Amino acid sequence: MGKVVPLSGNSAVAYAVKSADVDVISAYPITPQTTIVEKLAEFIANGELDAEMIHVESEHSALSAAVGAAAAGARVYTASSSQGIALMYEIMFIASSLRLPIVMTIATRALSAPINIWNDHSDFMAVSDTGWIMMMAENNQEAHDDIILAYKIAENPEVLLPVVTALDGYFMTHTTEPINVIEREEALSFAPKRKTWFTLDPDKPVTMGALGDPQWYFEFKKQQYEAMKKSREVIERSIDEFARVFGRRYNAVEFYGDENPEVVLVAMGHVVGNIRAYLNKMRSKNSRVGVLKVKLYRPFPEDLIVRYLEDVEIIGVVDRALIPGSSSPGPLHSEIVTALRKHEVNTKTLSFVTGLGGRPVTHEHIGVMLSKLSELKDKPVSELPREPLFIGVRE
Amino acid sequence: MSKVLTIRDLPREERFAPGHRMCQGCGAAILMRHITKAIPKDAIIVHATGCVEVTTTLYPETSWMHPWLHIAFENAAAGASGIEAALKVLKRKGQLPAEKEIKVVAIGGDGGTFDIGIQALSGMLEREHDILYVVYDNEAYMNTGIQRSGATPQWAWTTTTPVGRVWRGEWRPKKDIIGIALAHKVPYVATVNPAYLPDLYMKINKAMSIKGPKLIHAFSPCVPGWRYEPSITITLCKLAVQTGLWVNYEIENGVLNVTTPVPKRKPVREYLKLQGRFRHLTEEEVNAIQKYVDEQVAHINKLVGKEVIGPVET
Fold first, then answer.
1. pTM of structure
2. FRET partner for B33 with CA separation of 20 to 30 A, picked from A263, B4, B271, B302?
3. Is the ipTM of this complex over 0.90?
4. What is the chain A residue with the closest CA to B92?
5. Which of A57, A72, A216 faces B59 most closely, judged by CB atoms?
6. Residue A277's domain is classified under what CATH number?
7. In total, how many domains does chain B have?
8. pLDDT of residue B299
9. Structural domain containing residue A313
10. Which residues of A73-109 are buried (b: 16+ CB within 10 A; e: fewer)?
């Protein structure tokens, strides 16, 4: 086992990237992710990591160069946030469709306008349809470990899809926690570097990124869908193996709280930790409440969600992104409702939208959400609010 | 590298397979055939979205015998940067044989280079990647139906600069892509033309031997976009050079060398009159183009320090 050192979220991520022995880092600065790349530059500058750093002129080129490098057979890393992720949007689809095992960290941050550099999940949610495997950490140790897990999953020959590992901008990227650092040997024994995908090799030339006309495009898309579906199994196996090797288990979905809950908050990212702390504080009140943490967002682990929520009276889904005009303006709420409906589970749901643009989700807010849920749990569905409840906003 | 003197000295081996869907008489098809002969077998090609990309890689077929990657429209230079960086580090780390030299070539059209790809190109040139970038310039977005680009010459008709009662085709001069590349202090830039294949071959060969970023600007007539008969592509290519409208040259470490001197020029009218895109031009407009070319030629002669392009034959 490695040593325990105090690290910011971004440093924790950078140490894992170093241990993964990445070959090419292609990234653009100026977002909450910046210090990941600064740290990696330091590692390369000091000879602690042998990698090429491409100082690209935009995030669009950051991901484009990452695609090129991965296609040439390199283990590739990039990171971005917010507007940078929006700029990469086009290439995110292409990276996943070319089936290149790129790992990218999103240090989650709000989208403009108004311009806002602080944390929410707008960027993460905006790219959730791009065909990437997506996971979000709750604390810095998890953000560190996710990198190693991500390469293991991405490069699995049954998967070959790029992976997003996310952590909350500032709340995590710029706060310090003790981190059990995975060393290079451990990382490479868990996620060995193997050539599992087609690469650009003059001895075995292939054409990558061909034109797929109506005769073929659909089949490509179906294969991509199958790979994403298949990845669930690989992810579960990788989580098990990670837990065996490193003693830390990160389930796709994790429940914390009363054994037989009637009220559950569903959340992602660092807010889950806040809710855990709140529940610990309130435990004396003997209430049947809990929190369900969604770590894996793509592929969405609907089976587990349903298993945890089917006997619950009412749930509140905490969204830190907002899609105006959607039938469910909270994207996580939308996923959960779909999963419950598909499995004919009648758990009542409320949608909470909170913490946009860096506004902290405090214990007071969590208290408001939980009391709203308790207040409504015995009401018939017809009396529940159909609109999301905005928590912590000035009206 | 042996010196190629005539077209008979070009390599016989074909590395650009026939059966593609490019138009009859396409200038870019001739360019691709000869670019692939001139670059080594151990080279990786990255292609921007465009005519050539869509017509040569219709799945499950491909014309490319080199490893080949297409990502999107505006990022061939960025994708190539990633490949070049990967090859460097993989060799250093022993994941690729150290003795194997693999070159990287990026190819894009004028839209993907002058316009939407200019930022990625600038990044690639500025970061000093060891990449040859070739832009085949057919002077408009031909793949999508002849919309003007930053490379469209003044007065040319396109579907977005139509000729009407108010507009007379494109009203702005062509962007100076070579000047942009030179501003990045690159070691080698050159222009090539499908009618001068030994010159093209020599330049690409030379570019591959020079370390660092290189830009080659290729003249690429487009039958449907320029509105001419497919049989006269090479005639047009020659006329472009003979009128001084296109000059074959190279600039190696700042030194200009005109590789196809033209002792006596033909009037630009000869070139313009064969193309439907210039059909609307009045006498005054043709004279304006002639004046523009005269000035360009004077500028080049001044840079070379002697008359490499002569006066218009009368």
1. 0.97
2. B271
3. yes
4. A50
5. A216
6. 3.40.50.920
7. 1
8. 97
9. 253-391
10. bbbbbbbbbbbbbbbbbbbbbbbbbbbbbbbbbbbbb
